[in-house]
Amino acid sequence: QSDALGSFEPSWHGHLSDLPDGPLFLVANEYLDALPVRQFIRSGDAWAERVVGVSGEGGLQFGLTDPLPLAALKDRLAVTTEGDMVTQCNAAAAQVGFLAERIRSAGGLGLIIDYGDEEVAGDTFQAVSNHQKVSPLDAPGKADLTAHVEFRALKKAASESGAEVSGPIPQGVFLQALGIEQRAGVLAQALTGDRLEQHLAATARLTDPDQMGTLFKVMAIHAPDAPPVPGFPC
């Protein structure tokens, strides 16, 4: 990033609290999915946490703690059954809450764009290396680890900080409302052959329901007195 953006002289910050004062305009694109998560498997009315340990051969392996009742997951008992897995990302909720308070008090707008849903069910924890899925335990520190984002928890954190929330809505719906089809049509006029095919494929990848258009969601955080956010239903 420093090489690609060096000519723009960006300012780098190690923590959200280091951001300068004033209105905050934020785009978090595929950021929250990279934060650490905890996974729990339902056992009766309790939850066993999935953990990582060392196997007899010296490699890494998954294991489970003894089941315990968890107040933080009490509301999930009504929507899960025996053996279901749920994921928590406390870091994401904490950071969104901090950003929402900042936007509420100082103004601005936050856009969160990531893959996930209102509630995340099942095992979405994965590792990618060289654009291929690999085992998360095979080469620690050498693969991109991600998990689907649970937007319900983010909405709750932002609302508790006094900010307003729009969405989440599918990325395809958001981009179409902003006029991506019209913009793509204008750009296509100057293209032919392979470049035109690549352009059309890239547009479809962002918007089509069977590609990124539905898997990715967009959520906006804004002050209570802010005007409607473009791209979201009023």
Quickly list its features.
five-stranded mixed β-sheet; four-stranded antiparallel β-sheet; alpha+beta; 12 strands; 234 residues; 28% helix
Describe the structure.
There is one protein chain. With 234 residues, the chain is an alpha+beta fold. Helix content is 28%, strand content 28%. The protein is built from seven helices and twelve strands. It has helices spanning 2-5, 90-106, 151-160, 171-177, 180-188, 193-207, 212-215; strands at residues 24-29, 38-43, 46-54, 60-64, 85-88, 108-117, 126-129, 132-134, 144-146, 149-150, 164-170, 216-222. The strands form three sheets. Strands 1, 6, 10, 11 and 12 form a five-stranded mixed beta sheet that branches. It has a four-stranded antiparallel beta sheet with strand order 4-3-2-5, with no helix packed on it. Helix 2 (90-106) runs parallel beside helix 3 (151-160) and helix 5 packs antiparallel against helix 6. It starts with a helix and ends in a 12-residue tail after the last strand.
